[in-house]
Amino acid sequence: MIICTSVKCALRHSGTRRRSFSSANPHKQTMATIVFYQKPGCVTNARQMLALKAAGHDVIAKDILKEPWAAEELRHFFGRTPIASWFNRAAPRIRSGEVNPDAIDAASALTLMLADPLLIRRPLIDVDGARCAGFDHEAVLSLLGRDAQGDLEGCSHEQQGTHCPQM
Fold this sequence. Notes:
two-stranded antiparallel sheet, four-stranded mixed sheet, disordered N terminus, 7 helices, alpha+beta
């Protein structure tokens, strides 16, 4: 049994959920089934899913706010990244200063996120058990067949000077 620790590894070793784009062109990227935890109505998450679908992947969208998270399960999406990077910096409680991602331990961060999923950095991505948080990881970008995320990571509302509707 192969245990994958990255999305890229999962793509290489996945058996049933992986297939070629086209047998006519063996250099085309491998198609994956991606579980994509999003905030419904988020314009940025919608653009990210469209980019993955345009690259030929199957995307299963799930509501990050309604998912019954357990701390251990959520923790797997963050890997070895710094605790501060686990947070959605556009979340109201962070912007107001109520929550400071730069001064918190892992257990406290997970407790806060379980109580308020808006604090979780989006999207959470799962490809055959390999998980990550955010769209700027090299493994996610490799799913798109390019090395730069362009305008797919930042919050669309912040770029436009507007606010995301709260759920």
